[in-house]
Structure formats: C-alpha cells, structure tokens
Write a structure and sequence with these properties.
357 residues; mainly alpha; Ribonucleotide Reductase, subunit A; 14 helices; 64% helix; globular
Length: 357
Amino acid sequence: MNTLAQDFQAGQINEATDRALENTMLSPRFYTTDFKEMDRMSIGNSRVQWDQLMQEFANDPNNAHFQRPADMVKDYSDLPEGLYQEFLDFLISSITSEFSGCVLYAEIKKKISNPDLKDLFGYMARDESRHAGFINQWLKDFGIGVDLGFLARTKKYTFFKPKFILYATYLSEKIGYARYIKIFRQVEKHPEFRFHPIFLWFEKWCNDEFRHGEAFALLMRSNPELLKGTNRLWIRFFLLAVFATMYVRDHARVEFHEALGITPTQYDKEVLQLTSDITKQVFPFTLNLSDSRMWEGFAKLKDFSDRIEEQKLLPGVLPVVKRIYLGLRAGITFFGLYLLPVVSNELPADVRLQPVW
C-alpha cells in the first residue's frame, strides 16, 4: 500500500480536507451571489423547452447510478507515488468543485422565491451532492475523507454577481461534461488504461453536468441582455480564464494523463475544442483555438505558475518580490491572450443540445 495512504489511515485524515481548503488561483472556489437579483431572472419565451428540461430533472435518470457493487475491491492505493499524488489531486479538486456547486445551488434555492429557479437549483444541488458523496467514497478507500461539512463552514467564499455565476457555472458544467466524456471514451477504447474503477461511471455522470449546462444556457438565452454590450467583454474574460485555468492545472498532472494513455496537451486541445463547440449554443463568439498564439500563451502561463510555486518555497523578501514580478508577467500574458481575435458565432434558433459525443 502507498506510504501516504498508510499515513492517512494512521490518523492524518484531515489532509484531504486541507487540500480542499486551499485558496489559490487554480483551486476550485465556493461562491455566493445577490439572491434578490437572481430571483428576478425570467425564463422568458423558453417555457416549452424549460418545462421539458425540468421534466428530465424530475425523472432523475441517474438516481441509481452512483452505487458501487458490494463486492468491489476497496484498496486502489497501490499506484506509483507520482500517479497516486496526481490522482488524489484530481479527485480532491473534483470533489471540491462538485460540492461548491451543491452549496451554491442549495443556498440559492433557499433564498429565492421564483418557482422556476427554485426547482432548478434544487435539482442541481441534489445532483452535485450525489457526485461529491460518490467521490468521497473512493477517497475513503485510500484512508482519506474530505469533511464536507467542515469544508462548507470553513472554505472562503467569493461573491459573484448573478450574471457571473451564470457565465462561470455554465462553462464549469459544460467543460466538466467534456472532461469526463473524453476520459470515458479513452478508457472505453483502451481498457488497459483504466487504472481506477471510478472511470466506469463517467459517461452517465457527465450527462448530469451537460443537463445543468443546458439550464444555464436557457436562462442566458431567455435574458438576452446578458449576451450583449459590455457583457460580451465579461463572456470573453470567463472563457479565457476557465480555459487557461484548465490548461495550467492539467499540465501539473503529467503522470495522471500518461497513465490514461494521453498527454495533457492532447487532452486539453480535445476538451477545449469540444467545450468551445458546445458554447456556440449561447455565446456570440468562441475563442480561436486554431491560433497557435493561444496555446503558446497557455504554456507561458503554466511556466509562470510553476516558477511562482517554486518561489513560495523559499524564505526571505526576494522570493516575494520575484513572485510579484512573475505575477505581473502572467497578467500581461493573460491580457495579450484576451486581445486575440475571437470567432463570431450566430446563435442557433434552437438552444437545446444533447450529449452525443
């Protein structure tokens, strides 16, 4: 058994929770918002599609999906140390992201009166709670368990206006779908790369993520002012921020991706292109992923991130100065990427998509 797993089983059970509590530029965040403003949102002329989507939520197609066979082997910690650490990082980051969605959606449901949105956020909180609990079962097999209640009470919360919640969570849900389905298709085609059983659940799991994104797409298309004027600048920012964050985070998990038979760059290019194609249902433009400068900029941001982390380990004032300098250079690089031309997109008359990839 991996030494770290033995340490956890010996009593250091808060390590996973400590990792989940980290607040860095790359770590998943917990959010709060203006509930009164959220309450005023309307589904406009999307009633027919909205009611169909709510019926899908009510049918709860994945109600019995997140169950493990009783006779399934419980110890999956016998992995190479590097892969073990990166896989733990993947799981803990995933559980933090899923649970942050659960907390946000449950809080919105509690504090609004709009019946359409109360139904939606109640269903999505149910799904995200199920996802987070399922990941936690696997973490406990490693002798680890994230204390979700403590996480909800202790994690720092970031305030986002409702429109930012819509942009960010829409992208989070759709990119979550793309990430999970790409991994599932890879291990489906190459079972020899399925180094952990959790990947078997990813296909139906990511359909939940896709459905959540559909709800946010309908909300944004029903409130078209969110897609016009200066809001286009915010959409551009969130597209770039989410894509760049994924690139930097994934390139810190080289052994994880190699174990799946892919490289981080290959994986990110496929996932981001799929996500970009999906977002054409609601966003008036996409980032130009065919522009080599985009990928060169992502690589520079990864390099700056690595160098900043190296400086954090050093004592004294000089490393602090270097971190500020590197942070400024990263900001300049991000701004340069923001200024790259985008690809305009004519919004389709029919908003809804199906998870067919």
